[in-house]
Design a protein that fits this description.
Radius of gyration: 28 Å
CATH class of the largest domain: Mainly Beta
Number of helices: 11
CATH architecture of the largest domain: Beta Barrel
Number of strands: 29
CATH topology of the largest domain: Thrombin, subunit H
Largest sheet: 7 strands, antiparallel
Number of domains: 3
Shape: globular
Distance between the termini: 55 Å
Helix content: 10-25%
Structural class: alpha+beta
């Protein structure tokens, strides 16, 4: 089975296969390699890991007393890794992958002339696996920024970096595909290349034939841990916005609509009477889309006249929009096209999820010391539910009959005293008929298990 691997310096597997065709190969890539050489850096990191030590290996020391009263003694271990990056400003700002510097206690940057500098992290973005670091240096040579939207499948590219710690390594290949989704984050939109990328190439540039960076080498698909002809680079246009946000604001700001969306299948397209577009499966209460009049079942076909055909297109367009800007969203509803004006909000999912939980807790139907809600896309994601009917337990009152019986938040109730429960309306109707002092028997789903639990209605 193929695995997508973030290309750290981890596995010393030396397998390089050139898949470039013989025809149309440039006479030499020497001038391009020489042009970008001063801008590409080697990044080495050290992370301090604290682990429980075992002093029992010392025959003259019995640490049972310390284990009993102070816990096992700890010792420190150093973990080292290598990656790549490239200079984007004369005063020392450098772009690389977040996974290259994440949790690093010490970062060292080595330039092409072997000069070394300690670096500090300016900002990171896990969603795109990007990091901005800085060294204290002047008169550096920044790389030339290209336009990743203009690169096409079949175009020549060079990958530059430090595979296996071998600094300033240059490999050549072509763009194999665009818009690849590999499951590394919510904004996957990778360029695929057959230029050799190996552990240690992470964060290094993918270069076009003008000597401009058009991607950041990030991952490989491999069964061995080494190069097998399939590598992935983050488009530089995506990285530009992330970099600018980090430099100007100290954090990445993205637009948000407040909707759940899904790809349009042929069956869904037939049902919703559309040729293409992105289906809205959920509109979050109180979000921008809700305020703008969008509904579940709407099919988004364009935003400010930009066509939308795929899930990732909609996600990227919205993320790149300026927060506070009002956009015109064209949707197909009941076979007719409508335009809705929606004011883009800032994406802050942690805050939103917290507010939604609080709102759901307020709205939860409460009987027997438990609060329940109808199954929704959000709750399905939150509790990893597979059920499509029933009610979800959102709250359990401490020391209530339900609590003592073992009911937990995230349980899905399918039956109550032999009556089928499909939604909160069913739940309320059955619960209202159960007298005090009588038994309540629930059939609940928890994970992959169905189980009956019983308690007395007090």
């Amino acid at each position: 089975m193929k695995k997508f691997i973030l290309v750290f310096f981890l596995l010393p597997v030396f397998t390089a296969i050139s898949s470039a065709a013989v025809q149309y190969i440039p006479a030499s890539f020497k001038n391009i390699a020489e042009k970008v050489r001063p801008s590409v850096v080697n990044i080495s990191t050290v992370s301090i890991i604290r682990v429980n030590g075992d002093s029992m290996s010392d025959p003259f020391f019995n640490d049972e007393f310390y284990r009993r009263f102070f816990g096992a003694p700890q010792r420190q271990m150093k973990r080292q890794s290598l990656g790549s990056g490239f200079i984007v400003s004369r005063d020392g700002f450098i772009l690389t992958n977040n996974h290259v510097v994440e949790k690093a206690d010490e970062i060292t940057v080595k330039l092409y002339n072997q000069q070394e500098y300690k670096a500090k992290v300016i900002g990171t973005d896990k969603d795109t696996d990007l990091a901005v670091i800085k060294i204290e240096a002047d008169n550096l040579t920044p790389i030339f920024m290209g336009d990743s939207d203009k690169i096409d499948v079949g175009d020549w590219v060079l990958a530059v970096g430090s595979p296996f710690g071998l600094e300033q390594t240059v490999t050549q290949g072509i763009i194999s595909a665009k818009g690849r989704i590999i499951g590394e984050g919510p904004y996957d939109d990778f360029l695929q290349t057959d230029a050799a990328i190996n552990p240690g190439n992470s964060g290094g540039p993918l270069i076009n034939m003008n000597g401009e960076v058009i991607g950041i080498n990030t991952a490989i698909s491999s069964t061995s841990g080494g190069y097998e002809g399939v590598g992935f680079a983050m488009p530089i246009n995506m990285a530009k916005k992330t970099y600018n946000d980090i430099i100007k604001r100290g954090r990445v700001i993205r637009g948000w609509l407040g909707v759940g969306i899904q790809e349009m299948t042929p069956a869904l397209a037939k049902h919703f009477k559309v040729a293409a577009g992105v289906l809205i499966s959920q509109v979050y209460a109180g979000g921008p889309a809700d305020a703008g009049g969008l509904k579940s079942g709407d099919v988004v076909v364009s935003i400010d006249s930009k066509p939308v055909k795929k899930y990732r297109e909609l996600q990227s367009i919205v993320a790149d929009e300026e927060v506070g800007k009002t956009v015109a969203i064209n949707v197909i509803r009941n076979g007719k096209e409508e335009t809705h004006n929606v004011k883009i909000a800032e994406r802050n999912m942690a805050k939103f999820v917290k507010e939604q939980k609080q709102e759901l807790a307020k709205q939860a139907k409460k009987d027997f010391g438990i609060g329940v809600g109808d199954i929704s896309a959000e709750l399905s994601q939150q509790y990893s539910l597979s059920a499509t009917s029933g009610v979800v337990v959102l709250q359990v009152e401490a020391n209530s009959p339900a609590d003592n019986a073992g009911i937990q938040p995230g349980d899905v109730i399918h039956e109550m005293n032999g009556r089928r429960i499909k939604n909160t309306s069913d739940f309320d109707g059955v619960a209202a008929k159960i007298a005090k002092g009588t038994q309540v028997v629930l059939l609940i789903e928890r994970g992959d298990t169905m189980v009956y639990l019983a308690f007395t209605n007090e």
